[in-house]
Amino acid sequence: MKIDGIPYRSIWLKDDGWSVGIIDQTRLPHEFRIERLTTLGDAAHAIKAMLVRGAPLIGATAAYGICLGLRADTGDAALENMSETLIATRPTAVNLRWAIRAMRELLLPLSEAERVSAAYEKAAQICDEDVAINSAIGDHGLEVFRQIWEAKGKTGKLNILTHCNAGWLATVDWGTALSPIYKAHDAGIPVHVWVDETRPRNQGAHLTCWELGKHGVDHTLIVDNVGGHLMQHGLVDLCITGTDRTTAAGDVCNKVGTYLKALAAKDNNVPFYVALPGPTIDWEFEDGVKDIPIEIRDGHEVDYIQGLDRTGAVSEVRILPEESGSANYAFDVTPARLVTGLITERGVAEASKEGLARLYGQSVYKAS
User: Fold this and answer.
1) Which domains occur in the chain, in start order?
2) Which of 164, 160, 123 is closest to 145 using CA atoms?
3) What is the CA radius of gyration of the chain?
4) How many CA atoms lie within 13 A of 75 on its CB side?
5) Is 183 annotated as a binding residue?
6) Regions of the chain with pLDDT less than 50
7) How far is the C-alpha of 92 from the C-alpha of 319, rounded, in Å?
8) For the segment 219-265, what is each residue's pLDDT rounded down to a tens digit?
9) What pLDDT score was predicted for residue 368?
10) Where does substrate bind (predicted)?
């Protein structure tokens, strides 16, 4: 994708051929800052502190984290320690485990002398495959959007509601839920996006609005609880979100607040789609509510809000009394029964075990 005319991916190998460039997403939208990762610790910090976020991008960063770690020690024990360090950074997104598994399966049979170059080749492959997968998701999603647009009589705008950020900043490029939006916009369908602010980290306000603006897509920021009202008044034609983990039965785990949007969509007969790449499917879990571990993050994210102050500086302010506590559940699970369809790189599937099996057959993406 392009930022002020310059093409970027969300992660890349820098010109020195070994260190890794990322966009510090905690600085957006007020500052565009590129960070250089040079060690395993840098990669782990980038994931845990959410300089990078989004399931596919977390996986790609973990792959490059292994590369950086191997530059210091190529031994088996070191590789195991690297894997454990990276897995501990974020518990919910399955792509993290998937990427580390892919790296370990490649590297462990190799001699230590072969591992560094092989790791970099594999990490680059994971990134390139992610771009191709997300572009394909956009192509399949475009057809869904086109059908809804035609059913609407091609009048007015196609109003889409999304939650959190599932754009190119959450992947290596294109994005998952935003990929069909970009493809529809580029195809001439007049899309308008209702962007949930997505408290407490405000990824919708900070990241999705920034991305859509850079691409020239019409959008409006709304507070998280407005979506149901808009649906009641016929102002939403479809909802689309991403997912950090999808069960084999079609339950989807996404940023907290997604479940409530799905309930409102169901009550108002608004189609609710989820866009996902194959590596986000956890074939070992079927009951998302029971099985998926939900990350509980530091309450500081709830207690404070970040923005641009009157002096033009980025600052934080506390929004609750000193004596009050907070809880910060980062994700929730939307049961498959509330999902109209799953838009994948292989096509659109019914949100069910049978629907996913028709597209994927024997799983090629097991994560553990």
Assistant:
1) 2-128 (1.20.120.420), 137-360 (3.40.50.10470)
2) 160
3) 20
4) 5
5) no
6) 365-368
7) 27
8) 999 999 999 999 999 999 999 999 999 999 999 999 999 999 999 99
9) 40
10) 53-55, 90, 203, 254-255
Is 104 one of the annotated binding-site residues? Answer: no
Select which of 237, 244, 251, 303 is catalytic. 244
Cα–Cα distances in Å, from 86 out to 41, 45, 175, 329?
9, 9, 23, 21
Contact between 242 and 274 (Cβ < 8 Å)? yes
As a whole number of angstroms, the distance between CA 362 and CA 314 comes to 49
Residues 287, 247: contact at Cβ < 8 Å? Answer: yes
Q: Is 53 annotated as a binding residue?
A: yes
Q: Is residue 9 within 8 Å of 167, Cβ to Cβ?
A: no
- Tell me, what's the pLDDT at 363? 53
CB 227 within 8 A of CB 149: no
What distance in Å separates the CA atoms of residue 193 and residue 201, rounded to the nearest whole number?
Answer: 19
Residue 344 DSSP class: E
73 Rama class: left (phi>0) / alpha (psi -120 to 50) / beta: beta
Q: Is there a contact between 303 and 320 (Cβ–Cβ < 8 Å)? A: yes
Give, to the nearest 10 degrees, the angle between helix 94-107 and helix 112-151: 140
Judge whether 244 counts as a catalytic residue: yes
> 282-291 burial by CB neighbour count: b if 16+ within 10 A, else e?
bbebeebeee
